[in-house]
Amino acid sequence: MMPVEPDGGIGDGAPPIRTAGSESAEDTMPASLRGQWRENDLSRTPTAKDCEQTSDTNRNFGKVLTVRNDGYTLFEQGGRLMEVHNRTDTMIDATFDTTYADTPTQARKDFALQPGGTLAINHDDGDGILNVTEYLPCPE
Q1: How far, in Å, CA of 51 to CA of 35, rounded?
Q2: N or C: which end of the chain has fewer CB within 10 A?
Q3: Per-residue pLDDT tens digits of the chain, which is 140 residues long
Q4: Dist CA 67 CA 137 (whole Å)
């Protein structure tokens, strides 16, 4: 017989799988970070066209970040919140499920709203070096 944890888990000690609507405010992306963001590589404020990802604007692929309640997407990549390590109204340090094409992976990232309205994401690409990518808000 398989052991069962009080939360319905199978007894492996892993945190329970999130289901839609089960998150509390503490384990969601802060509202101030949600929306569309454009990588800050233009040396100017992005326009609506800079934030489009169509075949006509393929130069934007991989540069437009969407932050949702439960995680983020960046072109064909993204992550769903797995574990929140620290959170305020303007930042979150969390581990994300970044599984892609049936290869289970996870990544710890820090999203922080900076003075002036930019979004900075700190992440380790696996080389032990912390990388920072900055984004500007897309027009609404």
Answers
A1: 11
A2: N
A3: 444 555 455 445 555 554 444 446 678 999 999 999 999 998 899 999 999 877 676 777 889 999 999 999 988 889 999 999 999 999 999 999 998 888 888 999 999 999 999 999 998 777 778 899 999 999 98
A4: 11
CA–chain centroid gap for 70, Å, is: 8
Cβ-count burial 96-131 (b if 16+ within 10 Å, e if not): bbbeeeeeeeebebbbbbeeeeebebeeeeeeeeee
At CA 93, angle to CA 87 and CA 95, rounded to 5?
125
Q: How much is the pTM? A: 0.77
Nearest to 77 by CA among 64, 92, 58: 64
* CB-count exposure of residue 6 (10 Å: 0-12, 13-18, 19+): exposed
Find, among 20, 4, 32, the residue nearest to 80 by Cα: 20
Distance CA 73, CA 77 (A): 6
Sign of CA dihedral 51, 57, 60, 62: positive
